[in-house]
Amino acid sequence: MSEIITVIAPVNIAVIKYWGKRDEDLILPLNDSVSATLDTSIMCAKTSVCARPEFKEDGIWLNGKKESFYSPRLQNCLREIKARAAAEKSVNEDFLQWKVHVCSENNFPTAAGLASSAAGYACLVTALAKLYKVKSDVSSIARLGSGSACRSVYGGFVRWHAGTNPDGSDSVATQIADQAHWPEMQALILVAGDTKKKTSSTVGMRIAVETSELLKHRIKHCVPQRTEEIIQAIKEKDFPKFAEITMKDSNQFHAVGLDSYPPCVYMTDVSHLVSYVIHKYNEISGSIKVAYTFDAGPNACLYLLEKDVPQVISLIKHIFPSSNPDKFVTGLQSKEEPLSPVFMSICEPQKQDLIKYVIHTKVGDGPTEITDGSHLLNEAGLPKAE
Amino acid sequence: MSEIITVIAPVNIAVIKYWGKRDEDLILPLNDSVSATLDTSIMCAKTSVCARPEFKEDGIWLNGKKESFYSPRLQNCLREIKARAAAEKSVNEDFLQWKVHVCSENNFPTAAGLASSAAGYACLVTALAKLYKVKSDVSSIARLGSGSACRSVYGGFVRWHAGTNPDGSDSVATQIADQAHWPEMQALILVAGDTKKKTSSTVGMRIAVETSELLKHRIKHCVPQRTEEIIQAIKEKDFPKFAEITMKDSNQFHAVGLDSYPPCVYMTDVSHLVSYVIHKYNEISGSIKVAYTFDAGPNACLYLLEKDVPQVISLIKHIFPSSNPDKFVTGLQSKEEPLSPVFMSICEPQKQDLIKYVIHTKVGDGPTEITDGSHLLNEAGLPKAE
What we know:
Two copies of one chain form a homodimer. In chain A, the strands form four sheets. In chain A, strands 8-7-9-6-1-17 form a six-stranded mixed β-sheet. Chain A has ten helices and 17 strands. Chain A folds into two domains: about 5-180, Ribosomal Protein S5, domain 2 (2-Layer Sandwich), CATH 3.30.230.10; about 185-360, Alpha-Beta Plaits, CATH 3.30.70. Chain A is of the alpha+beta class. Chain A has helices at about 70-90, 95, 115-130, 140-145, 200-210, 215-235, 240-260, 270-285, 310-320, 340-345; strands at about 5-10, 10-15, 20-25, 30, 35, 45-50, 60, 65, 100-105, 155-160, 175, 185-190, 290-295, 300-305, 330, 355-360, 370. In chain A, α1 runs antiparallel to α4 (about 140-145), α3 crosses α4 (about 140-145) and α6 (about 215-235) packs antiparallel against α7. The interface of A and B includes residues 260 and 276 of A. Chains A, B: Belongs to the diphosphomevalonate decarboxylase family.
């Protein structure tokens, strides 16, 4: 029998957005994307795996609920990890025949546009890789689970290369800079809703590829240039440049959604108000101090430097009052600072709870094995929670 | 002294959108656009003009309020009409020296994205043209007042040619088909707000031209093809084709706004809900029966055929309940028809008054001189209302 392996893995929030596949089964994207990986101490997926000769079938429990193991994406990940292990001869053949149990949970709401599937598949694939002692890069296997999961396989700032090979072998993630490179970089996630989204990313991308004429131009002309520019901005720690490209690319991704037929709209009035407020804040500040970016949902992710966090939190609290102010900001601690009067005029306070809560986090490391024994599976290889 | 000339002129709602100027002073667009002219019996601007030797200065009253005549756009229109009259020798030189009084009003809210300036300038220029007996096409002069005003100079379906001449002489409107060509074509304008918009069209266009990479692609590749296709659809009275292009072009125009930096956002959650509902309605109907289009504001304009109006009004009443249901739909009369149960499931009724009221109208004629004596100026050439 195998020991139980437990891994935690981070979410990542893209600054150059992935939208559109060139191969739906292999999850190969039409364009490169770039993201920052966020600290696992604040948001993470946690996954325990083990393989036993006595297991009758592969089993998976997600957030406390038994799910089917027979999703194509899950099957693809397990098959490819085993194939890699066989190629590397990292474990013996018997071991590869044993069935596996997987138990996974997120410490944040699923499918609310908070990159839960990215963290989840990065976690699963990393845990399986450790179980089968696979040593090579597994980002292309995480990609088979959820495209953006490949970026959560590394910490710091990460590039997902679209690649050109039909088999996807060159569609992998690489690290641009590790988490220690730009330690001042933090993030505030403004949770505007935690309901499931109307159009899944998979469907939204498919419609965009089939119908948006602007998507073609974005992929061919806009993204390649932006990718090079933002990598340079990251390497040079040029925050205004990083922030400007981040905001422009978020807006262009949502523009392409709107140009799809029927249109795919993920931003709401609240999202657009956040965008408006950040532009005004930067304008009054005289330089770009905060960047917003929106994934396939209404939540804003703000990237900003540590020194600007107290003022920006005060601004958000002013405009978006909460019925539960003590629990409004979770995650990292930061100093309190009253809002400078010059920023008071940006926008009147809105009605309560348009922003439900804020997660304060920072750029962090990639997946990590947990060695304190806090597994999600018990000695028998069954979920502890059941 | 001259007689008083009074003209009414229509609004027009574009189906291929104008967004972006190649010359800001001459108001020359980067792309062709196409619109339908809407019936003046429902919505119109009304303008009275006269010229008198005893007037000390040019004077203008808009919606009951004296305004400055020294706006560059107003000056350009008056100067060019007089130059045209001089070239055509249509009036004597003394007449051209006399100062003019202009009194104008709209029978609908100004600057709420209801094309008020288009109707206003088309009305002014047509009235001045009649005053100075100008016989030639004046669409290029209306264009100097407000770009889209040139399309309100004709009835039916109208194309505004971008033109290529630096002086704008070929940036004129031409009629695609007159109002009698497709008499079944009607429109429902869903007024979601009548407050002034955040970013004026002029500023929004300038930002788009300076910053949107997608705008270039739209202008070069998308609009030329769509323009030809929609003109053919109009000529062949192919409603589904007309409607599909109309919706796609509206979405692309707003996509370009979102791709601008900072982004220009005119649609709201209510606008997107209307779009969603129309797509579902068409899907359930098994063919495209309604098209939405949105200008630089949250209001939807729905194009549809007369036979489908009762059902669509019932759908709108179901989803957007009004606190004043008797006055919810204004304009043309239509039969009442209960909503088919199959459409009930499209969307739950929303909270009251998200849509304030609906204007039911149809495609109509161009500007018309009023000969019943109901001038806005009295015998002395001063506003009657004062």
